[in-house]
């Protein structure tokens, strides 16, 4: 999981895919954090993406860095505790202007049953499950 975290941090921007009804939805994200041994992402609970993950927790993430790309298939699990919210906002202090721990809008999701595949044109794919 640490390698996946480092890949996403290096990429800076990753793309999160969710489902809304029968329509895929993809948007850029930039938050990723490790807390209590789990990989977390963050958004606003009032945003459609958060509602989509609550309704159907299956997500995919994709990013590129250093000539490689990663695809992660997982289930996004909402963690309503304030502690992972604090940890995320400490990692991204620029978000503190929009989010506060326990504000009813800050939403952190951890990735459950995740399978990440790191690929390139020059090496065999590497699969990481966490």
Question: What does it look like?
Answer:
The chain is of the alpha+beta class and 130 residues long. The protein has a single domain, classed as Pnp Oxidase, Chain A. Helix content is 22%, strand content 48%. The protein has three helices and eight strands; from the N terminus they run H-E-E-E-E-H-E-E-H-E-E. The protein has helices at 2-11, 48-55, 82-91; strands spanning 14-20, 23-29, 33-35, 38-44, 58-65, 68-79, 106-119, 126-129. Strands 1, 2, 3, 4, 5, 6, 7 and 8 form an eight-stranded antiparallel sheet that branches. Strand 3 and strand 4 (38-44) form a beta hairpin. It is globular and about 45 Å long. The model has no long low-confidence stretch (mean pLDDT 98).
As a percent range, the share of helical residues equals 10-25%
Which CATH architecture would you pick? Roll
Please describe the biggest sheet, giving its number of strands, its sense, and whether it closes into a barrel: 8 strands, antiparallel
Give me the oligomer status: single chain
CATH superfamily: Electron Transport, Fmn-binding Protein, Chain A
Query: Roughly how many Å apart are the termini?
Result: 6 Å
Chain-averaged pLDDT: 98
Q: Nearest-angstrom radius of gyration?
A: 14 Å
| SSE string, helices as H and strands as E | HEEEEHEEHEE
pLDDT < 50 runs, ≥5 residues = none
Indicate the structural class. Answer: alpha+beta
Q: Any key phrases for this structure?
A:
single chain, 130 residues, alpha+beta, eight-stranded antiparallel β-sheet, 3 helices, 48% strand
């Amino acid at each position: 999981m640490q390698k996946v975290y480092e890949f996403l941090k290096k990429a800076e921007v990753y793309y999160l895919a969710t489902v809304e009804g029968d329509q895929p939805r993809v948007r850029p994200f930039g938050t990723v954090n490790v807390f209590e041994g789990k990989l977390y992402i963050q958004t606003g609970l009032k945003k459609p993406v958060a509602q989509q993950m609550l309704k159907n927790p299956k997500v995919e993430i994709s990013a590129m860095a250093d000539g490689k790309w990663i695809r992660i298939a997982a289930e996004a699990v909402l963690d309503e505790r304030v502690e992972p919210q604090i940890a995320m906002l400490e990692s991204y202090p620029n978000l503190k202007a929009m989010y506060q721990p326990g504000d009813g809008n800050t939403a952190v999701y951890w990735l459950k049953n995740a399978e990440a595949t790191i690929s390139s044109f020059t090496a065999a794919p590497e699969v990481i499950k966490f």
